Amino acid sequence: MLDIRGILLDIDNTLYEYEPACNAAWTETKKYLAQKVNISPDLADKSLKQAKLKINTLLLNTAASHNRLLQFQILLESLNINPMPHALLMEEIYWNTFLDNMILASGVIDFLQNAKKLNKKICFVTDLTAQIQYRKISKFNLYDYADAIVTSEEIGQDKPHQNMFLYALNKLNLQPNQACMIGDNYSKDVVGAIEHTIKTFWINKTETCVNPQNELIVVVKNFNELLNYLM
After folding, report:
1. Which residues of the chain have pLDDT under 50?
2. What are phi and psi of 207, to 5 degrees?
């Protein structure tokens, strides 16, 4: 049984699969580039990669480094195209398509409903900018299950920065031994949480998964398996 009072919960690649939604979104955005400014898909891919590299160099480990509007602005500028008639439209196409292609992972709702019944407090702890993370939560109608949210935009640093976890605990008014972390990313979710001695459930979907030799880490493959610990 999960004998804790609060749950720190990651969003991306934990509540849903990120890559399929991202790929669909970028495909639609490339269609816009081809139609409006005659940029081929291959050149768009290359230019986006360079734009991400540049923005990560400037804004590494901050929420702004994930900002698609900035990425698309830099992409267009690198091709000597005025970004202002296009970048905002590209961002809208990207995120609208992304949201349309998000599929909630199996077992998430059952887990959250049972957590609610057992009076577990929940705080989303997530990288990226606040607006799009709020839109993802809204897409899945998860507002009623959570008590708080901490984004890297609010903190100024991505996970595993200590303040991501400290702020979440503070918002839930809990100590580290009263909470657990649930996430998919070992270096961000798991490492960040166990540094504060927070018990962590690492959602690892790979078939060849070795359980780390750490009593604070429990490896699960999905929310259906995780529900067994809750109950």
Report:
1. none
2. -75, -35
